[in-house]
Design brief:
The protein is mostly helical. The chain has a domain of 41 residues. Helix content is 40%, strand content 0%. The mean pLDDT is 89.
Length: 63
């Protein structure tokens, strides 16, 4: 079995790079049973806390 993970993903915080919202990113990763996903916004760390909160919320709900 192979393991695939997106390690280069921009969110809505990378202006003009992506339009995906962090909540949608985390939900899609969860639905597709991905074990990991990265957030690599360009020049900003503004989405890091929101990404962390959404990811931990999904982990908590799966228990």
């Amino acid at each position: 079995m192979t393991f695939f993970s997106h390690l280069h993903v921009h969110s809505e915080y990378s202006l003009m790079e992506s339009t995906i919202k962090i909540k949608d990113l985390v939900n899609t990763a969860s639905i597709n049973e991905m074990k990991a996903v990265a957030l690599t916004d360009k020049y900003v760390m503004s989405g890091a806390i929101e990404f962390y909160k959404e990811a931990t919320k999904i982990i908590y709900l799966r228990r």
